[in-house]
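Work Package 3 (structural annotation) set out to generate three-dimensional models for the target panel prioritized at the project kickoff. During this period the team completed the workflow that converts sequence records into discrete structure tokens, so that structures can be stored uniformly alongside our sequence database. As a representative example, we reproduce one entry of 353 residues exactly as it appears in the project archive.
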Amino acid sequence: MPVANLRNLCRCGSHGKNFTFIAKRYATTHSTRGYRIWTSRQARWSTKSSQKPSLEPVEGLFGSTSADSGTVPLSRLWKPFVFTIAFSGASLAGAAIWQYENLRQRAINSMRLPLNWAQERSIMPKKGKWRQELNKWWSNLSEGERLFFPLCFVNCLVFLAWRVPSFQNFMVRYFCSNPASRALCWPMVLSTFSHYSAFHLFANMYVLHSFSTGAVASLGKEQFLGLYLSAGVISSMASYVYKALTSQPGLSLGASGAIMAVLGYVCTQYPDTRLSIIFLPVLSFTAGSAIKVIMALDATGVLLGWKFFDHAAHLGGALCGIAWCYWGNAYIWQKREPLLHWWHELRSSAPTK
């Protein structure tokens, strides 16, 4: 098995805050969205096979499981395409409503509660030493970190599920995106929380933690989460299209597509931020240059058919983040007033207990 290669370990700073990230380029024999699971016999998609998916063995940590394989015509992707639009729209709409509810609750609390009582409650110690320590730790976190840790927790739970032998077939079917699978749509979402190796999980969570504070400070936690979920599905769709066009087999999983959207947004929003490789601090470059190099490598991988990572998913995620920076925030998020007005009317008309 080739030794995993980790490079481009970087530290960046913007507006007085430091962000640290890994522009990941690592490879193993199990390469998915950055880590793809190879079939035991290097299964090829036969142009003579039927369009109905077939089952082929996939070597895993606990032995072989079965995965759908077969030709994938573009006409089969209409359902994932509709799902991508619907899920992305629902994610952004849910994020807007979540922000509305948070602001509404703050306004209600500020009107109902005396200021001195609210201040006293905010500093009221919790019962139990461990609760006090936990509350102190949570209070010292940034908004980005408070959003990162629940996301990381979900990813860790899914990672542990991969370690249960009886779950293997279920995990391959529903937590790996595969355009040849009978389950097409929900794996596009679930695969973005799925990691098969500890190194893959660590690298992705390290990058997400490093950039979450800056991205949330710029977007707000609600908009950030809406973008993150949407980018994960869009990157899966980009992977589906690439695999269908090139007739290449392989399952994909990992948060890299969604994380690439965060990198694309931050590096585009703050292009002049100076980055440096953590082990070579004398070598520095701008964030704008970094995202261009990363995308150039992924574009080369797509054109040349490299199989180190799911380069199409990386490109789809990065382009989503860049598009959101230039266009999405202004023409989608800032135009959410009709939705919020409808939600406000719906809440007002609902019977109260």
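Residues 263 and 318 are 7 Å apart (CA to CA).
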